[in-house]
Backbone:
């Protein structure tokens, strides 16, 4: 038997003010688009802002549906739009802000597993890491230098 030890390294910022101005702007855009989420069932709102290497910022918010599996998370809404409209652009950074209408959350909330796998696909495609920033409604922000920190065992085309 052999044991594998995996460690994850994240940077922790106490507030938006600790980020550089471009990262503050990206996170602020994630916060603003979060407010436009369509979340009548879960009351859980998520906003995502993606910075592309061409300077474009792509926004997405979660979109729910009464048939629950038909809804889509904010991160995938934004990343699929970026992939469809800017297929040659690399994704440099993704900022995510999430909170509940019922219980405001100031704990950083990472992307769900499906979103992590979708983001991983784009890291593989572009052969470059994507910086991830995530927070709750306000407060601390966590930064990961690559999606691989959040999903160390990724599934990719090499398994097919």
Residues:
């Amino acid at each position: 038997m052999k044991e594998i030890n995996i460690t994850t390294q994240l940077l922790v910022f106490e507030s938006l003010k600790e980020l550089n101005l471009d990262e503050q702007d990206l996170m602020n855009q994630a916060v603003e688009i979060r407010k436009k989420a369509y979340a009548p069932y879960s009351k859980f709102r998520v906003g995502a802002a993606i910075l592309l290497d061409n300077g474009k910022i792509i926004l997405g918010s979660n979109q729910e549906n009464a048939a629950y599996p038909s809804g889509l998370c904010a991160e995938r809404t934004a990343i699929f739009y970026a992939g469809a409209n800017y297929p040659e652009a690399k994704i440099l950074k993704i900022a995510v802000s999430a909170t509940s209408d019922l219980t405001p959350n100031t704990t950083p909330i990472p992307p769900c597993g499906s979103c992590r796998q979708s983001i991983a696909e784009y890291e593989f495609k572009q052969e470059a890491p994507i910086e991830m920033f995530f927070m709750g409604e306000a407060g601390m922000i966590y930064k990961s230098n690559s999606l691989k920190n959040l999903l160390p065992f990724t599934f990719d085309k090499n398994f097919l």
Q: What stands out?
A: The chain has three helices and six strands. The helical segments are 21-34, 74-85, 113-126. The radius of gyration is 15 Å.
